[in-house]
Design goal:
Layout lengths: L1 H31 L3 H10 L15 H16 L3 H4 L5 H15 L6 H24 L3 H15 L2 H4 L8 H13 L3 H13 L5 H13 L3 H14 L4 H13 L3 H14 L4 H13 L3 H14 L4 H23 L6 H28 L4 H14 L4 H16 L2
């Protein structure tokens, strides 16, 4: 009789276990029939530690695999009321599959989990793009990182251990950068660069992230490494030059500008940048030569015309100081030196007028012209006063 009782007890316990595991099947059935709220409620009962009946299912890999499917289905639903059932369903789906892998010690569910993880990766890619387009860069980054987590799972890696999704790594860097997580941006850009993804652009992006951290030395180091690998990459070279110019490292800037001009002699900004460098070194004549070269290469290059106008204007201002230094008893010499200032200002005018032609409503150009015309009135009132008044009226109405 005792044996019968024991047997009956065992049968009852086994039946209870089967009944509870049957709930996992029921949850999947609800999911397959589109009743996702019931599916969610049912699967949650099977992992609820306060529910005594969940003892047989809470540590069963199939429970967590089913839970992952249900949460993924919630994400994929087009019904807003269903979507509201979970705040971040794909994250919960991934966590569920990871738990299933942990519990599936013998790997019996490996093939089905691989398939589900592949589908989850596709869903995360869609979510990453969607959040990027919504400018929710933190969420986009999280989704890209979760794809990388899936890619690095041993069961995924075993099919192709050398597989590296450089596109996802790089996009994670972009999302990190735009979410102002510059350390992570550097991490992912650096990893992408290691595999040669995006060539020099990866190093430029590393430098951008370092600059946002105010770490110019590391930005420069990244660009130098990029230049060693991709010496023909114009953007790497341009950024190197810009940093050296900003740091007033004239010798280094000049060296890279010469390299840049050698590689692309028909790119006017290089001559312009070299001109500004010479101007900063108080070599106005060399600056004039280079600004003219920039205009020769690009006849519509506004900045080169403007800087030429400024150089000649400044020569006129400096000449005034020369005139003032003439002894008071040498009036004729004073007048001669003073006239030279007018010559410089007159030379400046055509360049400023060209700037006005290129950008008719540029206020800075108009102010510069007004000042020049005013200075020239004493030399030839009939010629310059009407021009002065015209510009003055335009500025008054702006």
């Amino acid at each position: 009789m005792k044996r019968t009782i024991i047997l009956l007890t065992f049968i009852f316990a086994a039946t209870a276990g089967f009944a509870q595991k049957g709930k996992v099947t029921s949850a999947l059935s609800y999911k397959n029939s589109g009743e996702l709220q019931k599916a969610l409620e049912t699967i949650n009962e099977t992992i609820d530690p306060s529910n005594e009946k969940s003892e047989k299912t809470i540590d069963w890999d199939k429970t967590w695999e089913a839970r992952g499917e249900i949460y993924q289905a919630i994400y994929e639903s087009e019904d807003e009321s269903v979507k509201s059932l979970a705040e971040d369903p794909l994250t919960t789906a991934l966590e569920s599959y990871q738990k299933a892998i942990e519990l599936d010690e013998k790997g019996k569910s490996k093939n089905s989990l691989k398939l589900k993880l592949t589908l989850l990766s596709n869903a995360l890619t869609s979510q990453a793009i969607e959040k990027w387009n919504e400018e929710d860069f933190e969420k986009s980054l999280k989704s890209f990182e979760q794809i990388l987590t899936i890619n690095n799972l041993p069961m995924i890696k075993e099919d192709n251990e050398n597989l590296v999704d450089t596109g996802i790594i790089y996009n994670a860097g972009l999302a990190a950068y735009y979410s102002e997580n510059y350390d992570k941006a550097i991490q992912y850009y650096t990893e992408a660069a290691k595999y040669g993804y995006k060539g020099g652009q990866a190093y430029v992006n590393i430098a951008y992230a370092y600059e946002m951290k105010k770490d110019t030395a590391s930005a420069l180091e990244a660009l130098q490494e990029g230049f060693e690998k991709y010496s023909s990459d114009k953007e790497v070279l341009d950024n190197l030059i810009n940093i050296y110019l900003a740091q007033q490292k004239s010798e280094d800037a000049m060296k890279y500008l010469d390299m840049a001009i050698e590689k692309d002699p028909n790119y006017a900004p290089y001559y312009f940048a070299k001109g500004t460098l010479y101007e900063s070194l108080d070599d106005a004549d060399k600056a004039i030569e280079l600004y003219n070269k920039a205009i020769e290469v690009d006849p519509e290059y506004f900045d080169a015309y403007y800087n030429l106008g400024v150089v000649y204007y400044n020569k006129g201002v400096n000449q005034i100081e020369v005139a003032r230094a003439v002894p008071a008893n040498e009036n004729q010499r004073y007048e001669e030196e003073l006239a030279k200032a007018d010559q410089w200002w007159e030379k400046s005018i055509p360049y400023m007028e060209k700037c006005r032609e290129l950008r008719p409503e540029d206020a800075i150009t108009l102010e510069s012209l007004k000042n020049l015309y005013y200075r020239m009135i004493t030399k030839d009132k009939d010629k310059w006063e009407p021009k002065y008044k015209e510009i003055d009226e335009i500025l008054s109405n702006m």
